[in-house]
Design a protein that fits this description.
Layout (H helix, E strand, L loop, with lengths): L6 E2 L2 H8 L4 E5 L2 E4 H17 L7 E5 L4 H13 L2 E4 L9 H8 L3 E4 L2 H6 L4 E3 L1 H4 L13 E2 L3 E6 L9 E5 H14 L7 E3 L7 H13 L2 E3 L7 H8 L3 E4 L1 H10 L9 E4 L6 H9 L4 E7 L4 E5 L6 H4 L4 E2 L3 E5 L4 E6 L5 E3 L5 E2 L8 E9 L5 E6 L4 E3 L2 E3 L1 H9 L4 E11 L3 E10 L6 H8 L12 E3 L12 H11 L5
Parallel strand pairs: 2-12, 4-5, 4-6, 5-9, 6-7, 11-12, 11-13, 13-14, 14-15, 27-28
Antiparallel strand pairs: 1-8, 2-3, 9-10, 10-20, 15-16, 16-17, 18-19, 19-22, 20-21, 22-23, 24-25, 26-27
Amino acid sequence: MTGRARWIPDPLHAAATASPDAPALTAPGEVISYAGLDRCVSAASEMFRRAGCGAGTRVAFYLDKDERYFMLLLALIRTGGVACLLSTRTPPEHVHSLLQRAGCQAVIAEDEDALRAVRNVEKLDPDALLAEEKPVDGRAANLDLDAPATIVFTSGSTGTPKAAMHTLGNHYYNALGSNENIALGSGDRWLHSLPLYHVGGLSIVFRCLISGAAIALPEPGAPIGREISRCGATHVSLVATQLLRLLREDEAALEGLKAILLGGSAMPASLVREASSRGLPVHTSYGLTEMASQVTTTPPGASPDVLRTSGKVLPYRELAISEEGEILVRGETLFAGYVGENGEVERPLDSEGWFHTRDIGELDEEGCLRVTGRRDNMFISGGENIQPEEIEAALCRLGGVEQAVVVPVPDEEFGERPVAFVRTADGEVSAERLAGALGEVLPRFKIPVAFYGWPEDAASGMKVDRKFFRELARKTWTGAT
C-alpha cells in the first residue's frame, strides 16, 4: 500500500464498453454478455448501497458458486465494500465466529441453519440484491487500487486459519502479471474449476475481466473433463488429482486447451513428465494466499527440465531466498495483512518489507524457483532433520507412483519416524520395492518405516491435508517392523 490513492477504470465496465456483446460469464444453459453483466452489477451495487453496505463495509459470502455469486462479488467491490469469502464446507454453526473474526457487518446466505446461528449482523438475501432489473446509474466509477476488496481465510494447514485481506490492486496486479505470461483475451474461456473462497478461484475472475475473456462456470458436481468440453474452455486451473484423473479417464478433454495452470501442492514429477510428454500446454507454478495467488510460473512451451521447477517470478512481484533457505516475497500483489482479533489489519513483514512464507526453496542458475519443502512440515528423527517433501519427490520419481505423502509417527527410540501413503497406477503398494528403490537415492534414516495405500476418504483439495494423514498414520501405525 502506497499511502496515496491510485485509480483505474472499473475493468468490467471498460470491457462492457469495448466489447458489449462478448461473453463475460457462461453458466449451464446461460451466456451473459459483458454488457449484461455490467448492468446486473450496476443494479446490485445500488441495492448494496440501499442496504447500507458502502465503502469499507465487510460483507460475508456463504453461498454455493453460481452466476449470482459472481455478480454480487463484483457489485460489492464496485461499491467499495469488502467481500469476506467463506468456505461452504464450514459448518453453519461456525459461520458466526468467522464473521466476528473478520469484522463483518453483514452476511449473504441462504442456509437457514447458518442464518439462525448468525447474530448482530445484517442478513442479506442474494435474490433480493439482484431483484433490480435496471441500474439506477449506468455509470461505473473509477476504482481505488489501494482500497480493501476481499478477505480470504488461509488453508490453516499448520494451525488456525487466518483472515487475509487483499486490496483491489493485489488482485489487479496479480492478474496483469499472469496475463503477461499466459496469453488470455477475447474469445478465450477460463473454466472456473476452483472455489471462489480460494485466491486461486478469485484470480481467474480478475484475469478474465482485464483481458475480456469469459469465465466458464461448470455444472456443480459434474466431471471436470465433461465441463471442459461442454464450456469450450481454452484455459483451466488444475490441482494434481484433477490432472491425474483427466489423464487416466478423459484425456480427450485436454486436447483443445491453450493453457493448463497447475497449482496447489507440489506437483509430482511423474505427473508433470507425463503431461509434458503428451504435448499438453502445462504451466507449473508457486503461489500463496498472501500474494493473491501466483508468484512464479513457467512460460509457454517450457522444457521438461524447466517444468520440474515452479518457474520464474512474474511481473509485479519480488522473490528472494534467505540465508536459511526460506522463500521471501513482496511486491504489488502482497496482501494488506491479517485481520486481527480487534478487527484491525496487521501486516507481518520484516524491516525490508519481505513476507516470510515459511516455505523452503532455491533459485537455479536460470532464476527458476525450486520449492523443496515447508519449515512447518520438518520433523526430527534420531537427531536428523527430515523434510517430508524430499522423500515424497523421490517416491514420485519411481515408476507407477502417482502421489505420495510422508508424515511422522511416534517412536520410542528415535522420537519420530517417517511413514508414507502412496497412490499407484495399479493400486498396489509394495513396501519392499519402494524401500529398495529409495535406498538407492536417500540415506537410511529417511526411508519410511511403513508404506500404506492411498486412503479412499482423502480429500482432493487445493493442498494436501497433512493433518488428516498424520492422524491416520498414528491410528494405523503399530510400531511393528
